[in-house]
């Protein structure tokens, strides 16, 4: 059996998805979609904590965009936090920082998204 890719926790009114892998790429994106994307919903706010992730490829970016789309369809807010420098540079390069709420820390994300 494959170990889980993410853990879900509740922090006040915010659901936090903490990725337990160092890569979000073609090798595990199907599992990410199964464990995470399908669960996003029900209003409220969601944060995806990427602090453990040091590499994201185009399929990983696509999966994160799928999460954003699903959250918008479900009336949720979605933020990302803990982006390591290499991942943050990628987000800046492809300008995804313009469509995602990106926070430096989990605490900042929960504080900002939990109030709206």
Question: What does the secondary structure layout of this molecule look like, with pairings?
Answer:
Elements lengths: L5 E6 L2 E6 L3 E2 L4 H7 L9 E5 L5 E2 L1 H16 L3 E5 L3 H9 L7 E3 L2 H9 L2
Parallel strand pairs: 2-4, 3-5, 4-6, 6-7
Antiparallel strand pairs: 1-2
Low-pLDDT stretches: none
Q: Give the count of helical stretches.
A: 4
Q: Any idea what the CATH architecture is?
A: 2-Layer Sandwich
Give the SSE string: EEEHEEHEHEH
Q: Which oligomeric state applies?
A: single chain
Amino-to-carboxy terminus distance: 38 Å
Overall description:
It is a single chain. The protein is an alpha/beta fold and 116 residues long. It has one domain (6-114): STAS domain (Transcription Regulator spoIIAA), CATH 3.30.750.24. It has helices at residues 29-35, 58-73, 85-93, 106-114; strands at residues 6-11, 14-19, 23-24, 45-49, 55-56, 77-81, 101-103. The strands form 2 sheets. It has a 5-stranded mixed beta sheet with strand order 1-2-4-6-7, sandwiched between helices. A two-stranded parallel sheet has the order 3-5. β1 (6-11) and β2 (14-19) form a beta hairpin. The longest helix has 16 residues, at 58-73. The chain is globular. The chain starts with 5 loop residues before the first strand and ends with a helix. The model has no long low-confidence stretch (mean pLDDT 93).
């Amino acid at each position: 059996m494959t170990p889980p890719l993410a853990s879900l926790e509740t922090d006040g009114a915010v659901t936090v998805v903490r990725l337990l892998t160092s890569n979000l790429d073609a090798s595990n994106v199907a599992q990410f979609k199964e464990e995470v994307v399908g669960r996003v919903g029900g209003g409220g706010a969601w944060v995806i904590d990427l602090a453990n992730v040091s590499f994201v490829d185009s399929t990983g970016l696509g999966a994160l965009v799928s999460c954003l789309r699903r959250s918008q369809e479900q009336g949720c807010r979605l933020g990302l936090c803990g982006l390591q420098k290499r991942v943050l540079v990628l987000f800046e390069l492809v300008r995804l920082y313009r469509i995602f709420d990106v926070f430096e820390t989990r605490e900042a994300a929960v504080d900002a998204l939990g109030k709206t």
